[in-house]
Amino acid sequence: MGDIAFVACSGCAAGKKRFEGNVHSCAEAVSSGFLRGECKSGCVGLGSCIQVCKQGAMSLQDGKVVIDRDKCNGCGDCAADGVCPQKLIRMIPEEATNFIPCSSTEEDEETVRATCGYGCIACGECTRACPQGAVSITDNHAVIDYDLCVGCSACTVRCKKKIIVDTLHDLRILKDKVAFVRCSGGNRASEKFRELGITDCETAAKADAKSLGLCKAGCCGQGSCTAVCRYNAISIINGTAYVDPEKCVGCRDCTYACPKGLITMVPYKGQKLVPCMSDEETAEKAKVCDSACIGCEDCVRNCPNGAIYMKDRHAVIDHTLCENCTMCQYVCRNNVIKELSVPEYIYRQREALRSEEGGKQE
């Protein structure tokens, strides 16, 4: 087995659209500088590497440089000095199965999340999980030492942002937490904002909700969260964002995208959830929403484990105490409380993963 080329960037945040048609080479693009909010370490997508590939193994698809592994002969021309000004192309073993497609040098986690969904936040979870010590943090992003990597799934499973590519396993479903939208308020808000010509959550969140007859804590329904989700796990259903827990990988990008802070992370297990954050009086809630928590406290009084309490006039469930019984749903007057159901096969896979030393799975 020989080597093969690999592009250590999967994002489109380095000004690709801005440079397209206006700049003639990658070096020219990089030397012209980057704007605020653009990744200074990413691929600019003008294809200087493609031009030097004699095997026709490289192409530009949706702004990303894609390498055809069957055509690449490992000559290294694309990785030579002076070809990629960002030094994003590395030669790695052809038999490699784990890849980290990011070269960001940004130190601030929130800036990385806001800039690129594929950005490594240098949390170090992968380095701590790797049983071979094959992963390290270099210049604020994770790097794999292929002389040590044995191709196990530990780094893939533990990656907080789920950006590590693993061609042998699909372990995205083996996550501790998934996103949950604390609102099920329907399409009243989304329709009103569309009438006003508002098409983004940031602008909608600044509007005077009370004067518009809307819940000030509710989902705007304009899809800022859906725009950042790389796994199509979030969709707008009946005007409100909804997370498909099976598709969600727990990367938390959506939690940063919601201007109202409606999206939170919850344990991926069978449990009860309260999709409401309104702190208004009951009468005010009734004016703007048919599915709000009315603060009656029936669930609090009847929970056998004391797992439910009131906060800012809405119920909150303590997931460390909830045993997923149905009592709270049974007594809820407004049918607000929902259940997060988890497929049985998830439990079996999680148990199998735990049984392997260091998270390795054959």
List its traits.
two-stranded antiparallel ribbon; 17% strand; Alpha-Beta Plaits; two-stranded antiparallel sheet; 362 residues; alpha+beta
Helix content percent band: 10-25%
Shape descriptor: globular
Strand order of the largest sheet: 1-4
Helix and strand sequence: EHHHEEEEHHEEHEEHHHEEHEEHHEEHEH
Gyration radius, rounded: 24 Å
Outline the biggest β-sheet. 2 strands, antiparallel
Question: What is the domain tally?
Answer: 3
Class from helix and strand fractions: alpha+beta
What's the mean pLDDT score? 90
CATH architecture of the largest domain: 2-Layer Sandwich
What's the total count of β strands? 16
The amount of beta strand, in percent, is 15-25%
Number of helices: 14
Distance N terminus to C terminus?
A: 21 Å
What is the CATH first-level class name of the largest domain?
A: Alpha Beta
| Uncertain ranges | 356-362
Write the CATH fold name of the largest domain.
Answer: Alpha-Beta Plaits
Tell me about this structure.
This protein has 3 domains: 3-166, Alpha-Beta Plaits; 175-269, Alpha-Beta Plaits (2-Layer Sandwich); 270-341, Alpha-Beta Plaits (2-Layer Sandwich), CATH 3.30.70.20. Helices cover 24% and strands 17% of the residues. It is built from 14 helices and 16 strands. A hairpin with a 2-residue loop joins strand 10 (234-237) and strand 11. The two termini are 21 Å apart. It is α+β, with helices and mostly antiparallel strands and 362 residues long. The chain has a two-stranded antiparallel sheet with strand order 1-4.
